[in-house]
Design goal:
The chain is built from 5 helices and 3 strands, in the order H-E-E-H-H-E-H-H. By secondary structure, it is of the alpha+beta class. It has a 3-stranded antiparallel beta sheet with strand order 2-1-3, with helices on both faces.
Length: 117
């Protein structure tokens, strides 16, 4: 059996590389609606379950609290915050019909996806 002894400098470099690999995050672009499906909210988060719970609890005053928007109907994920923000902006720029078509193609019954957790 062969053992390789790393210098302290190599050990630190190896450890730093390992840390960089394990710290990668996932970012989510998500869409919420209310029970009547007449409003949509699009957001970005790095913790989807936490963020959905915040919407449900009405922690922050704003659109989702005002319009009772709590039903998670669409999710995308990426490892890049820049890509997530760009996608959020893209979706927000779409007409309502196009947003509905996107949801329908992935979740035709508009089920609350967070109920599967």
């Amino acid at each position: 059996m062969t053992h390789q002894i790393l210098s302290s400098r190599q050990s630190v470099a190896t450890r730093d590389l390992t840390l960089k690999v394990t710290i990668m995050k996932t970012y989510y672009v998500y869409m919420l609606t209310n029970n009547n499906h007449n409003v949509l909210y699009i957001g970005v988060t790095n913790s989807l379950e936490r963020r959905i719970e915040e919407h449900r609890q009405g922690i922050a005053d704003g659109f989702t609290k005002k319009y009772n928007v709590r039903k998670l109907i669409y999710i995308e994920s990426t490892e890049s915050i820049d890509a997530a923000i760009a996608r959020e902006k893209q979706l927000k720029g779409w007409r309502r019909e196009k947003k509905d078509a996107l949801v329908n193609s992935n979740n035709p019954e508009w089920k609350d996806l967070s109920l599967e957790w």
